[in-house]
Design a protein that fits this description.
The complex is a heterodimer. By secondary structure, chain A is α+β, with helices and mostly antiparallel strands. In chain A, the strands form three sheets. Chain A has an eight-stranded antiparallel beta sheet, with no helix packed on it. Chain A contains eight helices and 17 strands. Chain B is flat and about 60 Å long. Classes of the chains: A alpha+beta, B mainly alpha.
Chain lengths: 415, 267
């Protein structure tokens, strides 16, 4: 992607790599030394405006060094491919550690905690390597941008986009707020919780949960083996859906046919299912089971719910059971009232965040034990003031990538 | 069409690839044999593509959720790369590797059959799901082909039969793969913001996607430094191992226990 970004062009392709590798290694060792001296406390990025001031000073430093000492051999080397490539390798190696070891709390005093191998992406070695990489990338970007040449547009977009996304994404982590808001049906709340500390935070709006709904996939029926706590494999390799006429064959054991199906019902006094209103019903299926050498048995079974015990159909040492369908969609119907007095109705659903006063609200979860009868909804509120800058970086990367593709195709055709 | 039909489709596909490959020998001198060979090879791939499309319809969701489903896409797409390379560069050997790799992946699916499962968790029900995964899969296919080409080029070099054309082909496959890898990474970040609240959380899968991307970024910078072609072929040959870790190896790493990306039914 880079062609000749350094003003000092080495004579051999390998020239400068040894020193660059040592330079990267020194940065990593220095970072780990700081971690060791501070018992793996990691780096904490300052919040706005300090992070903004630091970033401005960093950009100014790159510009001053890049323009002021452009012809200097050391500066040429600092902005060259060998240093860039060594830092890429350094970043990849540190990411490798972070990608293999769990990034979770580790016992204090352990090697993992002392070197912050369990918090690699907020560690000093990673910060040093990333800062030096941004310096290297910044210098090369400067030299490719001034004087402006249209032929360098792809380089500018791709590398510039990467610089902006990386720098703003990292600087912005300090200002990123991710809060959890537990909501209960029929109640209003303006209290959110920071995780993992669970510290309560008052948010500039309140949310009233009118209704929480879950849509489920069609329930399935299966042959359950209580001895192994496993479901017996069906002949067709599927867990069949409960619908009238559906048939399952468990080779050598039994076959079953659904002769009737009530997706949302409650039992009467005799145990027969009657259609239910609201959310309280459960799926009922009438199943006819045939075991070789025995008379067929037909019986209603259900998956159970808050007010009904589940019913199974015994087949030897096994049971024919109804398994509830997996959640298909879940949503919260809410009323949002801002501190400024306005109120808006909204539906919060997974993949459909809702914007309010600079925050994005996400449908996050619910009471999984209660399943589709949950009256509690977990909503996440996210405020990321640096997001527009990061997105500018992303779109520049994509534009540069498109040009790279186009240039690559043209070169390939010419080859 | 469901998984009940998969063994027959897989056997028919591999038979088509095998017979087509064998017919390539008389095809050098006989036009009818050449036609029959290409008909068998492309027909077998079309059969697999047809199965994939029918399976998509039967599942009522894109078959991109489980590891087995991604292997099915991979097995369908990689022979196409081999055929296109032959069409574009007149290099015939790559298609055999591609069909061989596809056979291996079909074999893994036969030994670890998926369960027919229509459910798709709400977070995956997004307009980003298909573009993100398909772009990544095509990138993986191209980079696998570049890796295989790298190894073959080293073999040719060892035998004193190194070819500039073949080295150029491995480079362009890697270049196209990198372009798609970049799109896949950015699409994933944009989707993550909509579904999970943040575009980047250093989830193990994201970390490995970043490492893979850096690996090929490194390759392109080595090319820009006019590095020795032999070193570049070694690099391409080995770089794909990083992608394999990202694709399914990450499921077995200690870090994966809290990943939101672990494939369901990983086998």
């Amino acid at each position: 992607m880079q062609t000749s970004k350094s003003p000092v062009t080495p004579t051999a392709p390998s020239e400068g790599f040894g020193a660059a590798a040592l330079f990267t290694l020194a940065a990593i060792v220095a970072g780990f030394a700081i971690e060791l001296l501070t018992s793996g406390s990691g780096i904490s990025i300052p919040r706005w405006p300090a992070n903004g001031l630091f970033l401005s000073a960093f950009v100014s430093a790159i510009a001053a060094v890049g323009f002021g000492f452009r012809e200097h051999r050391l500066v040429g080397w600092l902005g060259g491919i060998p240093v860039g490539l060594s830092l890429i390798v350094g970043m990849a190696l540190l990411s490798f550690v972070g990608g293999v070891l769990p990034q979770d709390p580790a016992p204090a005093g352990s090697m993992v905690a002392l070197f912050r191998l369990n918090g690699m992406f907020s560690s000093w070695p990673f910060a040093f390597v990333t800062l030096l990489f941004l310096f290297n990338l910044g210098l090369s970007l400067l030299w490719k941008t001034v004087p402006f040449r249209m032929s360098n547009l792809q380089f500018m977009l791709f590398h510039g986009g990467f610089w902006i996304a990386l720098a703003c994404g990292l600087a912005g982590t300090a200002d990123l707020q991710r809060l959890i808001i537990p909501l209960y049906e029929g109640k209003e709340s303006d209290v959110a919780y920071e995780m993992p500390t669970e510290r309560p935070v008052r948010i500039p709006f309140s949310i009233y949960l009118k209704d929480f709904q879950i849509d489920e996939y069609v329930p399935q029926f299966a042959l359950y083996d209580p001895a192994t706590d496993q479901v017996i494999a069906e002949k067709a390799g599927a867990v069949p859906e409960v619908r009238k006429g559906a048939r399952a064959v468990w080779p050598g054991i039994a076959s079953a046919t659904v002769t009737d199906f009530r997706p949302d019902a409650l039992p009467d006094r005799e145990g027969n299912p009657l259609p239910a209103n609201g959310h309280k019903g459960v799926p009922f299926a009438k199943v006819r089971v045939e075991v070789p050498g025995q008379a067929p048995v037909e019986q209603w079974i259900n998956g159970g719910g808050p007010e009904i015990r589940p019913q199974f159909l015994p087949v030897g040492n096994y049971f024919v059971v109804i398994a509830p369908g997996a959640p298909k969609a879940f949503r919260s119907n809410v009323m949002i009232r801002s501190s400024e007095g306005g109120h808006r109705a909204a539906v919060l659903e997974v993949n459909k965040p809702f914007d309010v006063l600079g925050w994005k609200l996400y449908q996050m979860g619910y009471d999984e034990k209660a399943g589709r009868w949950s009256t509690m909804s977990l909503v996440e509120a996210v405020n990321d003031p640096w997001l527009p800058a990061v997105y500018v970086g992303f779109f520049m990367i994509m534009a540069g990538n498109l040009l790279f593709f186009w240039k690559g195709i043209k070169k390939m055709e010419a080859a | 069409m469901t998984l009940v039909d998969f063994p027959a489709i897989a056997v028919a596909t591999v038979t088509g690839w095998g017979l087509g490959s064998v017919l390539q020998i008389p095809a050098r001198k006989s036009k009818p044999a050449a036609w029959a060979s290409w008909l068998l090879m492309t027909g077998a791939t079309a059969l697999l593509a047809w199965f994939l499309a029918s399976y998509w319809i039967a599942l009522e969701r894109p078959p991109l959720r489980t590891l087995g489903e991604t292997r099915l896409w991979y097995a369908t797409l990689i022979p196409v790369v081999g055929y296109l390379v032959e069409y574009r560069w007149k290099i015939g050997w790559l298609k055999y590797y591609c069909m061989g790799l596809a056979t291996l992946f079909l074999g893994i699916n036969l030994m670890n059959p998926d369960v027919f499962q229509k459910a798709l968790m709400p977070a995956l029900q997004s307009v980003w799901f298909v573009p993100h995964v398909v772009v990544y899969l095509v990138a993986y296919v191209l980079l696998a082909a570049s890796s295989v080409a790298g190894w073959h080029n080293l073999w040719l070099e060892y035998r004193g039969k190194g070819s500039k054309l073949s080295e150029s082909m491995s480079h362009y496959l890697a270049l196209l793969g990198f372009v798609l890898l970049t799109f896949g990474l950015v699409f994933g970040a944009l989707w993550a913001k909509e579904a999970w609240g943040h575009y980047w959380t250093w989830d193990p899968k994201e970390t490995w996607a970043f490492i893979s991307w850096l690996a090929y970024l490194g390759y392109l910078h080595l090319v820009a430094r006019k590095t020795d072609v032999k070193v570049l072929q070694w690099y391409l040959g080995l770089a794909f191992l990083v992608l394999l870790v990202c694709w399914f190896g990450v499921n077995y790493l200690p870090s994966a226990q809290n990943s939101v990306h672990t494939y369901s039914g990983a086998s």
